[in-house]
Task: structure prediction
Amino acid sequence: VRDPDPAALPQDNPAYARQHLRWLLLLSVLAIGVRIAFLVVWGGLDEAIQDSMADQYIYLDLASSLVEGRGFTVGTEIWVANPGQPTSIVPPMYPLFLALVFKVFGKSLIMVRSLQIILSVVVVVVIYSLGYHLFNSRTAILAGIGIAFYPALVMYARPILSEGLFFPLVALLVWQTFGLDRDDMPLKRYFAWGLIAGIAVLTRTEVVLLLSLLLPYLAYRQFQRTRRVKVRAFAVLLLTVAGVLLPYASYNYVAHGMFSPLPNAKWKLWDHTWWAEMRTRPEWQGVSLPERQVMPDWASRTESERDDYLWKMSVQFISDQPRTFIIQRAKNLLGAYPLIPRELFGEEGRPDGYEYGLTSLDDEVRYVTPAERIRVWAFRLTFVLAVGGVMLVALRRQESAYLLLLVLIWNVVHVMALVGSERLRLQVDPYLILLAAFFVSHLWGRCADGLTWGRGLGGSPESGAPARPPLQPARRR
Result:
């Protein structure tokens, strides 16, 4: 005898809880098993760096300095940072995470990867829960299975990168935002939102843009329901974010003379505007460390002075060449969302990290190796199905699911503004998978019901629009 479908039960029913927990445990174990299997077969259960991303070495350098008592310093000159001097070249949370792991377990990359695999379960649980509460149990199960097997998410458990911490934080932030979209939430839930948001900012600063979208969304949803906004609750939320960011802002003030919770990373815009254009010109071919060529007295400048100088260069470049800047943004979008299969038209080349192995994750992905092509075609299929999910959400006017669309908008704006890459897009792939699962679930339901629309495009409980009556097959005379 089958257990009853949890969608047909009240949430306080024990059968609902058992069924819900059973699926969460099954999907979590499945996700962990798939990721461990990948490391066993293609490398990662060792102390070797298996992927070519240069940021891994920066994070490991900072973590080693923290463990050895030298603070936030790097051992070599990296971009705008001076060796041996306090640096803010990257946000602090992931280096602190690595330092904590190294302090407790020794300098073990195996332990780091193991913890990242465990943290990846947070994304599985959140996506399953969002799918269940936003849509239905079938969507939740399909989305959970999709997260467990999605090639890029499986492979990104291996590199020593902030994604291992950032993806779960974004998932928790989205889940907390969904939870606050109700009238009976206690202040501690707003405190939790602020805590997660602050930690996320200290992990990857691009989440600031997401916060600027989520906060107005929350306020609008509250005002739409009650014609008022909980000022006290939002004050708790904002004060919690400020409290989390305060220590790092104080550190930046002491180390660099700027009271800011953001790292010295404005130079990245220079790298993806001015230098992105110059590196294609003959006079700059083969030039290494170009930032030292363009800034006078580089050696005598501080980290923040170097960062400010390169930032001003990028702003001037945008002002002088707006057309080039727009073309660069379009290329960024196509690079992050590679829907056009350019690799099929002869645009091939050696992968960025070919010397690391066939499954190496690279800064520049050309989709040449089998692993890269599996990732890109999995994304393309997911994206096409997710478009169907977006259309369903829009046609049903399911406003609670607009939260997922805000996450997608955030990522599109971010990759266009900075750099278009698989790595920067991957943070929203779980939400594309959820929308794709919703569309597949809808098609599944229609096929199962034959000619019956059921709760199809005609309406939804949230929109208030009447559902279409089921179509009945004609009787034989």
